[in-house]
Design a protein that fits this description.
By secondary structure, this protein is an alpha/beta fold. It has a single domain, classed as Stationary-phase Survival Protein Sure Homolog, Chain: A (3-Layer(aba) Sandwich), CATH 3.40.1210.10. Helices cover 25% and strands 32% of the residues. Helix 1 crosses helix 4 and helix 2 runs parallel beside helix 3. The longest helix is centred in the middle third of the chain and has 17 residues. It starts with a strand and ends in a 7-residue tail after the last helix. It binds manganese (II) ion (MN). Manganese (II) ion (MN) binds next to strand 5 and helix 3.
Length: 253
């Protein structure tokens, strides 16, 4: 039976984690190892300057989970480096509260945990639900449990991971699953300036949730049409077309 590591960036007590774990229990032997707090939008942070603590907590289904003071990527690294006796066959990160599409990937702790798995040579997948509040994770969890056996059977090439985003609608309204490319997010961040009681300025970066450019074939298009989006990603971020063009630049050394 496949040994599956489930982690997330919303923290070990997040409902999306439990939904994912419960669904994957049916397709493998699941171990949960997740951060003790919310690390959303922490990207690929790794903690190198202070010790990591590891403990146990009981999930709401009564099963035991590992938790740490570290980040989502630390969770994967701790497991791979030997905290658990066995290396997982698959890393699944999620289910995140909030889509991870387009440029979100550069901020995402959820996707970074899956990237950490890939760096260690383990097939990995990130799963996110397209809502920022009151998510119904049931369909997304079922979908993940149907996709996992396919990934285990077909495998993923080295350096690659799957980024899955699921619309937050009832199962009957899902149009199907699309294999997509990354789209373009449109962020609506605003700078909020306030004053502390000592009269010094401080800042919040706030604003409305992001929207996106609805271009056919993208992850953003799929979600806008109530389709599950599956984007294959590669850790090689080289821009090969520019690389070729730059061979012709005269760059003096
Ligand atoms: Mn999150």
């Amino acid at each position: 039976m496949a040994y599956i590591l489930v982690t997330n960036d919303d923290g070990v007590d997040a409902p999306g984690l439990l939904a994912l774990k419960t669904a994957l229990d049916k397709v493998g032997e699941v171990v949960v190892f997740a951060p003790d707090r919310n690390w959303s939008v922490a990207g690929h942070t790794r903690i190198m300057h202070k010790p990591l603590r590891v403990g146990h907590v009981k999930l709401l289904d009564g099963t035991m989970a590992y938790t740490t003071t570290g980040t989502p990527s630390d969770c994967v690294a701790l497991v791979v480096l030997g905290i658990l006796p066995r290396k997982p066959d698959l890393v699944v990160s999620g289910i995140n509260l909030g889509a991870n599409v387009g440029q979100d990937l550069t901020y995402s702790g959820t996707v970074s945990a899956a990237m950490e798995g890939v760096i260690s040579g383990i097939p990995s997948m990130a799963v996110s639900l397209d809502t920022y509040h009151d998510g119904d994770f049931s369909y997304a969890a079922q979908f993940a449990s149907r996709l996992v056996p396919t990934i285990l059977e077909k495998g993923l090439p080295p350096g690659t991971l799957l980024n899955v985003n699921v619309p937050n609608v009832p199962a009957a309204e899902i149009c199907g699953a699309q294999v997509t490319r990354l789209g373009k997010r449109v962020y609506r961040d605003v700078l909020i300036e306030r004053q502390d009681p000592q009269g010094r300025n401080y800042y919040w970066i706030g604003g409305e949730p992001p929207t996106g450019v609805i271009e056919e074939g993208t992850d953003i298009w799929a979600l806008a049409h109530n389709c599950v989006s599956i984007t294959p990603l590669h850790l090689d971020m080289t821009e090969y077309r520019l690389l070729e063009e730059m061979q012709g630049w005269e760059i003096s050394s």
